[in-house]
Design brief:
By secondary structure, this protein is α/β, with parallel strands linked by helices. It has seven helices and seven strands; from the N terminus they run E-H-E-E-E-H-H-H-E-H-E-H-H-E. It starts with a strand and ends with a strand.
Length: 193
C-alpha cells in the first residue's frame, strides 16, 4: 500500500521541507505546505523578519538574502536551508490553496496551531469522495536541529503507516507504540475529502 503524504508547517521552509526532503529521498510520495498568511524568515532582528508571498521561488529568496547579508544568513543557517529547499521543489506552497494537488492519505503537521488550521480547512471543504485522511501533529521546535530530528521521526512514523494494511484499523496502536518508543505525544484526527 503506497500512501500519499503532506508535510505541513507554518511557512513551508524548515520543518515541512526537512521532512519532505527526507521522505522524498526514501521514495515516498510526498508534498509539503505552509499554513501562514506569508512566508516568514528570520531577519537581522525579531522585529525585522524577511517576509515573502507563498509562491516566491526559494532561489529568489536565496539570492535576496545573499545580497542583503550573506554572512548573517549563512551563520544562522537560512542560506543552507534555502539551498536544500531549492533541490526539493520550486517554491513554498500554501495548504489552503492546494485543492488542485488532489487528496492525501496522511497529513503530518509540526505545530499544534498548524494542525488545527489543517483540520479546520479539511472540515470546510466539500467532502466529495468521502475518502478518509489521517492528520497527525508531531510537535517540533522551529530550528534546524529540531527540524532534522522531527524529519527522522516523521519518516519512522510514515514507514510504520506504509507497512500496515489499513491505517484506519491500526492507528490507535501505531500512535501508542510511537509515543512510548520515542517519548513524543502525538495529536491525531481523521477527516474526509
Amino acid at each position: 500500500m503506497k500512501l500519499r503524504y503532506a508535510m505541513v508547517c507554518s511557512s513551508n521552509q524548515n520543518r515541512s521541507m526537512e521532512a519532505h526532503s527526507l521522505l522524498k529521498r526514501e521514495g515516498l510520495d510526498v508534498s509539503s505546505y505552509g499554513t501562514g498568511q506569508h512566508v516568514k524568515l528570520p531577519g537581522p532582528s525579531l522585529r525585522e523578519p524577511n517576509v515573502y508571498d507563498f509562491g516566491t521561488p526559494y532561489k529568489q529568496m536565496f539570492d535576496d538574502l545573499r545580497r542583503k547579508d550573506p554572512e548573517l544568513y549563512k551563520r544562522n543557517g537560512i542560506l543552507p536551508m534555502l539551498k536544500r529547499n531549492i533541490a526539493v521543489k520550486l517554491a513554498p506552497q500554501r495548504w489552503q490553496e492546494n485543492v488542485a494537488d488532489g487528496v492525501f492519505d496522511v497529513v503530518l503537521t509540526f505545530e499544534e496551531k498548524v494542525f488545527d488550521m489543517v483540520v479546520e480547512d479539511l472540515h470546510t471543504r466539500n467532502h466529495v469522495f468521502m475518502k478518509p485522511v489521517l492528520v497527525i501533529n508531531l510537535e517540533v521546535k522551529d530550528n534546524h536541529e529540531e527540524a532534522a530530528i522531527g524529519a527522522k521521526l516523521a519518516l519512522l512514523l510514515c514507514m510504520e503507516l506504509e507497512e500496515t494494511d489499513s491505517w484506519e484499523e491500526s492507528i490507535d496502536s501505531i500512535i501508542s507504540n510511537f509515543e512510548s518508543k520515542h517519548r513524543r505525544k502525538l495529536l491525531y484526527s481523521v477527516s474526509f475529502y
